[in-house]
Amino acid sequence: MATSVAVRPAPGTEILGKLRRIAREPVLALTILAVAGLLFLLIVYPVSLVALWGLRDQAGNFSIDNFAVLWQRPIVQKAIWNTFVLVLISVPLGTIVATFVGYVLTCTDVPARRLMRILITLPMIFPPFTGAMGLLMLFGRRGLITYDILGLENFSIYGMHGIILLQTIECIPLLSLIVSGTFAAISRDMEEAAEDLGARRLRVLFTITFPLALPGILSAALLHLISVISDFGTPMIVGKGFSVLAVEAYSQIMYTYDLALGTALCTALLVPALFGFIAYHYLLGRRSYVTVTGAARGPIIHTMPWFIKWLVFLFLCLIVFWNFSQLAVYFAGAFTKLFPRDLTFTLDHFQEWFRTTKQLQNSLSTSMAAALAGGVLAAVLAYLVTKQDFPGRKLMDYIGTLPWGIPGTVKGVGYILAFNFAPFFWTGTYFILILVNIARSIPLALRANVAALQQLDPSLDEASLDLGASRVRTFVQIILPLIRSSFILGIIYIFKDAMTNLSSAIMLITPRTELVYTTMFANMTKGAQGDALALGLEIFLINIVLLLLITRLTKRSPLELFQI
Amino acid sequence: METRKASSVRLEHLTKMFGAITAVSDVSFEIPAGALVCLVGPSGCGKTTTLRMIGGFEEPTAGHIYIGNQCVDAQPPYDRPTAMVFQSYALFPHMTVYENVSYGLRVRHKPTREIEECVHSALALLELQGLESKSPRQLSGGQQQRVALARALVTEPEVLLLDEPLSNLDAQLRVRVRGEIRALQRQLGITAIYVTHDQEEAFSLSDFTAIMQAGKLIQVGKPMDIYRRPTNTFVAHFVGLSNIVHVEALEVRAQDATVRALDHVIHVAVPPPSRDGKFAVVLRPEMMHLCPADRDGIAARVKTATFLGPLIRYVVVTGAGLELTVDVTNPTAEQLFSEGTAVAVHLPDQVPGLLAV
Ligand SMILES: Nc1ncnc2c1ncn2[C@@H]1O[C@H](COP(=O)(O)OP(=O)(O)OP(=O)(O)O)[C@@H](O)[C@H]1O
Ligand SMILES: [Mg+2]
Hints:
The structure holds two protein chains of two kinds.
Chain A: H1 11-23, H2 26-54, H3 64-71, H4 74-107, H5 113-121, H6 130-139, H7 144-149, H8 160-184, H9 188-196, H10 201-230, H11 233-238, H12 245-254, H13 259-285, H14 306-335, E1 336-338, E2 342-345, H15 351-355, H16 357-387, H17 393-401, H18 408-419, H19 430-454, H20 458-466, H21 471-482, H22 484-499, H23 505-508, H24 516-525, H25 529-554
Antiparallel strand pairs in A: 1-2
Chain B: E1 9-18, E2 21-31, E3 36-40, H1 47-55, E4 62-67, E5 70-71, E6 82-85, H2 97-106, H3 112-125, H4 141-153, E7 159-163, H5 171-188, E8 191-195, H6 199-205, E9 208-213, E10 216-221, H7 223-228, H8 233-238, E11 243-252, E12 257-261, E13 264-268, E14 279-283, E15 289-292, E16 298-307, E17 311-318, E18 323-329, E19 342-346, E20 350-351, E21 354-356
Parallel strand pairs in B: 3-8, 3-9, 6-7, 7-8, 13-20
Antiparallel strand pairs in B: 1-2, 1-4, 4-5, 9-10, 11-12, 11-14, 12-13, 14-21, 15-19, 16-17, 16-19, 17-18
Helix pairs in contact in B: 2-3, 2-4, 3-4
The structure holds adenosine-5'-triphosphate (ATP) and magnesium ion (MG).
């Protein structure tokens, strides 16, 4: 290494230098400003309004007292307490189960490992609310199993236990995939070295394997934490009286129009979710253990005693069986009059498809617009934060990923606060739906593009500029074609996400701008079960078409669509 | 740390198949207690696989492994008296140097006092004092290597297994550390098996060198014996620049032989390896001399002359069109033959052995 003793310029002059360089390129400077402006408008402004509103009294003056008073309302305390208990049970439970599943699928000789891995992850492409609808039809008050078969009168699936059951089962596919990846990245040398030094299998597992996988397991837990806190749909459907923050904030604003109380609840929702997000980032930023040494050959595949092996297999089968029985019930519900009361075959529910063409149009057009605009924004932002150096670069990257940590309900409330007043007056328009969809899904697209850009040789970009191509030309003709598949992936991410946006869209729609997904949800809550299922299948169909499209366009595995 | 108990290692017809690939094929040899054996061979020839079978990480498809006369086939890695130094070092990144080195003792439930003593003497032996509480990634490559070695040695293994332990170090450090490993192995009197694909490293380190090719053990012996008497052309080329010249047997006796190579009569100190009469001699470049064309010798013409510092390497072409590489050591400007010059090649009158071809 050449050790030239460079004199480090003072930080101030360094920043000035960067600024001067950017200022020499007006197109670049303007792009940075525009992207920064958009991020502010779409993400920072609405979210900070939520927090600010919580700090405002009737007269519009800032006051913390007011906030404190609101927090003493029983309704707030109950919602906070319930959410807290839910997190305390659901997060560890889901993480443990998913870690176990991820571990046995990666590091043991459980039978039919490949097939099991596919079957376990498949629910990620199931129709929306498969778990919740299936649960109600099988175990609800008039459920097939609880009422018809077992004849239970007093059993109720509604409440906290129902929510926990659903959240735990539904987190398994994604979380076990993440954890699997961590286990698979552990170098076999580490485990063998420990074994060589005399440690037995279990000892290796607890002193080497798990500690090495811990960062991955923790980040999976934090993702789960965010989704449990933000979950709106599940508690809305199977909560029934078990009030959580996400639902309570929605009701306060939509039914009692109490913005002050709503925003206070939102703040309580925002703080832990943001905490989870920041912790997640911190974990990812720290140098990961698993990449310390060279060629990793993956973990040792442990052989289990036969009875444990089959016990584990049985457990996995149980999960798979559960998921697929829910799916079967879902189809049964869509094609019968009223499952399980009236099992007459009928296609009547699919008339809902024709009654909701307007909603479908709305959904498709707002999602498409969000996907295209958001896809381009994500690609440009990714390019700026990976290939350019300017003050605030890291912050921009961070803000682009921030919506992950913001519960949908908070985004919805934020958008009402931000765009319902002068100079915007955008509530009730398609425009606001498009904006919220961009804000909601930009992180996924951003990360996909950043990952692709980081693998690009920096000299490609520089060679093009060196040959006299402008920044714009370089971006369009060199960068975009090279990251084409993640660019498309990003667009499809956003589209898919936008089609199934419930928590924030539900606050921003008007009768004119209703969407398929919100209509499906409304059907579910008013008991029009068959109609809801038919609409769910419509969304399912669209998803399948998307999957086929993505494999054709990007030649990547469709499963990537669901990975973070 | 004082001299350890050392054990001999015996491999009997060891074979390993990965599906249809035969990674190791019928390898048998015995390593005397306290010896350092280098396993060398080109990439993919089965060195690592052999080592991993001895360590217990791969189950042999056939054959047996004995350590100190005890068959260890049924023993899992943690019960074998072996310790491995991995190519990647495999230091546990979530533990400090001290925790890494003490790991093997802790899993054996040794008393804390004893652990402390052992670890400290191991760290002292490898000159790692003061680094106890560092994390592995704060160490230099050479230090990491020594921690890996300390971690392996502290469990008092009877056999030390090293898989290309120096390949992550730069050239200078490599030479230094390999000297250290050799000194340490001698000092502890431990049996060691050392995998490398660097022939020079193998020769400079080992008591015995074992050469493998395509899963087979081709030759085992003291480095000098292998260099002087390679059993086939592969070994001859692998262990150094060789001119392989076909010979005609003139006289074959029980103890030695006389052969003719390039019209030159050569005496061979050992009998030929087979009776079918097709032999070659290995003429190392340093065994031959070049003289001006008017002297005795085989007429040839200089094709290239390369100055390498301590020697000049000539490639000459004989009248019959055979290319020979000849090194002239200690060159002086007057003795230089420029390219195209006619010269006489002086062959040795005696060679150590014959190759069957
Ligand atoms: N786990 C495995 N599964 C299948 N084939 C393997 C496995 N391990 C090794 N092989 C094959 O066995 C042969 C010998 O491999 P081995 O790692 O022993 O070679 P090596 O001599 O150590 O080579 P190198 O010098 O490159 O480290 C190779 O052809 C390799 O591809
Ligand atoms: Mg190897």
